[in-house]
Write a structure and sequence with these properties.
about 250 residues, alpha+beta, Nucleotidyltransferase, domain 5, 3 domains, 11 helices, 9 strands, elongated
C-alpha cells in the first residue's frame, strides 16, 4: 500500500504541522522547516551592462564610483561578477582554422617591491586584420626566456600548431624561442622604430653611430610603408650595407 501520510525522517513517527512550513516529530519533538531558504541577506542583482559600459562605451571606474558612491575595489568586484554571469562572455572563443602570427608582449607590474610581468599573447590570422587574445599569464620576476616558455606552454595545442610566425619587441631569447618552434621571427614595427629614434634629439651627435642610425631609420621607414617591389629590393640592399657598417648599433645585427 502507498503511504498516505509522510513520516518524520528522524524517528519515522507521525508529523505535526505548525503553520505552512514548520513541522514537528510526534516522538522526539524535533522541529524543522520544509523548503528552506538561503540564509543571509538576498544577493543583489548583477547588472550585465557594466561590461558593455566599460569595454564598449569606455566609461571610467571613477565615473561609476562617483555615480554609485562605491569604492573602486567594490566596483571591481561588481564588474567581475557581471562578466562571469554573462553567458556570451563565458562562452569559449573559437578561432578560425588558418595559419596564425603569434603576437607577444610583457606588461610590467610592481607589487610589494617585487617585479611581476603579465605575458599578453594574441593570435592573428595571416589573411585578417583581427587578432584574438589568449588568456594572459602573470608570473613573478622580470621578463626572460624561461618565463616566456612557461607562458607559451599555456597556449592550447590545436592553436599552437597553426602558429607560423612570432612577433615580439625583441626581448632576450625571442629569436631562440622562434627557432625552437620553427617560427618566423619578426620585430614589432613600433619597437623597432622607437629603438632607432631613442636618444635621437638635439644631442644626437653624442650618440655613437648617430649618422648611420639616422640613415637606417629612413630606410626602415621606407621598407615598412612602400608596396613597390623594386623600391623594396633597392632599400633592402641599402639596409644590409648600413647594418654591416662598423658604427651600426650591435643589437641590430643580432
Amino acid at each position: 500500500m502507498k503511504t498516505l501520510h509522510a513520516k518524520s525522517p528522524c524517528c519515522r513517527g507521525s508529523i505535526n504541522r505548525f503553520g505552512k512550513r514548520r513541522r514537528q516529530c510526534s516522538i522526539c519533538k524535533r522541529t524543522w522547516r520544509i523548503r528552506q531558504k538561503r540564509r543571509g541577506r538576498k544577493r543583489k542583482r548583477v547588472d550585465r551592462r557594466l561590461a558593455h559600459r566599460i569595454l564598449v562605451e569606455y566609461r571610467t571606474f571613477q565615473h561609476h564610483c562617483r555615480k554609485g558612491s562605491i569604492s573602486q575595489s567594490g566596483f571591481s568586484r561588481r564588474l567581475s561578477k557581471a562578466i562571469c554571469s554573462d553567458p556570451k562572455l563565458k562562452a569559449r572563443l573559437r578561432f578560425p582554422s588558418s595559419p596564425y602570427a603569434l603576437l607577444g608582449d610583457g606588461l610590467y607590474f610592481k607589487f610589494k617591491r617585487m617585479d611581476w610581468v603579465m605575458y599578453i599573447m594574441a593570435v592573428k590570422p595571416i589573411k585578417s586584420n583581427r587578432a584574438f587574445f589568449l588568456d594572459p599569464v602573470l608570473l613573478q620576476g622580470k621578463e626572460c626566456y624561461e618565463r616566456w616558455r612557461v607562458a607559451l606552454a599555456t597556449i592550447p595545442p590545436e592553436t599552437k600548431k597553426c602558429v607560423k610566425a612570432f612577433v615580439s619587441d625583441g626581448f632576450r631569447g625571442s629569436k631562440l624561442i622562434a627557432r625552437e618552434h620553427g617560427w618566423i621571427h619578426q620585430r614589432c614595427h613600433f619597437h623597432l622604430l622607437m629603438a632607432l629614434i631613442r636618444r635621437h634629439g638635439r644631442r644626437s651627435y653624442r650618440v655613437k653611430g648617430a649618422g648611420v642610425r639616422e640613415r637606417l631609420l629612413g630606410v626602415v621607414r621606407v621598407l615598412l610603408t612602400t608596396p613597390d617591389s623594386i623600391t623594396l629590393k633597392r632599400q633592402t640592399l641599402k639596409a644590409r650595407r648600413l647594418i654591416s657598417h662598423p658604427l651600426c648599433p650591435p643589437w641590430i645585427r643580432i
